[in-house]
Amino acid sequence: MNLEIQKIAADKKKTKPVFDTSLGFGKYFSDHFFIMKYDAKNGWHQPKIEPYRQLTLDPAAMVLHYAQEIFEGLKAYNSKNGIFLFRAKDNLTRMNNSARRLCMPEIDIDFVYDAMKKLVLIDKEWIPTARETSMYIRPTMIATEASVGVRVSAEYLFYIIVGPAGSYYPEGFNPIKIFVSDKYVRAVRGGVGEAKTGANYAASLFAAQEAKKMGCSQVLWLDAIDQKHVEEVGTTNIFFRFDDEVVTSPLTGTILPGITRDSVIKLLRSWNIKCTERRISIDEIMKGSKDGKLKEVFGTGTAAVISPVSELHYKDEVFNVGSGKIGDISLKLYEEILSIQYGEKTDPFGWVEKIG
Ligand code: COI
After folding, report:
1. CATH: 3.40.50.150, 3.10.20.30, 2.60.40.10, 3.30.470.10. Which one for 4-165?
2. Ligand 1 and 302: CB distance under 6 A
3. Which of 302, 305, 306, 341 for a ligand 1 pocket mutation test, highest count of atoms within 8 Å of Cβ?
4. Most buried among 78, 112, 233, 285, by the most CB within 10 A?
5. What's the pLDDT tens digit per position in 149-163?
């Protein structure tokens, strides 16, 4: 495939927002995007980087009816040391895993990786340079065949949009409160919980609104069978520190295999901090909060990086975490991951690629 590149006319470029932490998350998109089409006869074809524009879809496009959609989230980092991508191929590999689960066509990882790098560099003036800001990259695939029969679409669009981003939470890197839902569930065994598909996020919205009403930023999901064991938080995986051991839920098929989750496990083990993947019951967490063993709780994700948690709200009770402040391990992880992502520290894991 030949990648066609059509650049925007200088006078058509958008006005950029102020590049500081007030950027928030996911509100601004750059001047270009990457797009390609798929149909059964031609496979993936017509790959193009072109000026950012609206998409035209048939009202019967299958994604609009049966949610055959997958996406990824990753970032480009800009510092005095250059422009960096972090574990980008792992995101594309996970996208292909999601594609298989949703009966969608896989992408050629090397080709898309190369196109993504070109897109980021074409729009590099959209990558903010302040620490804790970055360019968020959102690869997306949708089913576009016009039909309302319930079956696998024969046509797709794959595109990548990018834009400047600050902190995911208005709190920034400050502790958030989370609401443990004992009523709603996110994903069931055998379902699509481990795929990065919009349906999982649609299913999360009702409880997320309940959480907001309770003054909490996110929902902590419990398993769907007996609502006893912790799964993940709305936009992050979740870790608990009991005394000197850090634990996180295992990848049993219902939670997202987070790339930041995996990086955190590897970093902790490289520091000789015990990190165990095992089932964690909500009872153990409540007990840990009461007897002081629960020292830290933090979420991990691309958008939020490390998100310390100060309180868990469960069944009308509030469970405090440690001192309520950012814990030592959360802080160390946050600093280490950012330093690797911004190319400030040697990366012993081979996670970053300098692209500019
Ligand atoms: C990410 O961390 O990149 C996510 O995809 C979480 C959310 C914004 C959907």
Report:
1. 3.30.470.10
2. yes
3. 302
4. 233
5. 999 999 999 999 999
